[in-house]
Amino acid sequence: MTTPEVSILIVTWNNKGTVERSIECARRACRQIDHEILVWDNESHDGTASLVANLLSPESLVRSLRNVGFAAGMNALARRARGRHLFLLNPDAYLDETAVTEMLDVLKHLKLHGIVGGRLEGPDGDAQAASARPFPTSWRTALWLIAQRNPYWWPLPTSAGDVDAVSGAFMAVPKDLWRALEGF
What we know:
Helix content: 25-40%
Distance between the termini: 28 Å
Structural class: alpha/beta
Shape: globular
Number of helices: 6
Strand content: 15-25%
């Protein structure tokens, strides 16, 4: 059995309405890449797990007997993952066809040893501030309290570069780094 380049990890809870499209987009984004898709279902009651079971192989779905949350579900999937790179994906996030390839290029060719986040866009195509943001500070919190200005607002990067934080909705990390950090 070969080691996949990428493991796409998705944690669900009552996401029947979105997870199928998320999986389909992930497959398209990985069509030229050796990959696996793993899903942790947090005791959904809307048929999410049954839907995923029909989309993926039996070993790709973990049905939790209780809702352990996003972080614990991701940690459990990361332990099962065989890929060299872990791509964390929300069940309501839909990857562009080039997203995985572009993020792999950043991870590999720029020799980054950290976490890479993707640009998140809303249904209207506008970039979401959660894509990349600064750490909260006293100044940003005061600005929000006084002016009701979003403390995470800042101009989003237009190309690869250093940021304080990326969104867990879509991020990639080398598996070795994930292990060294001991996950979430």
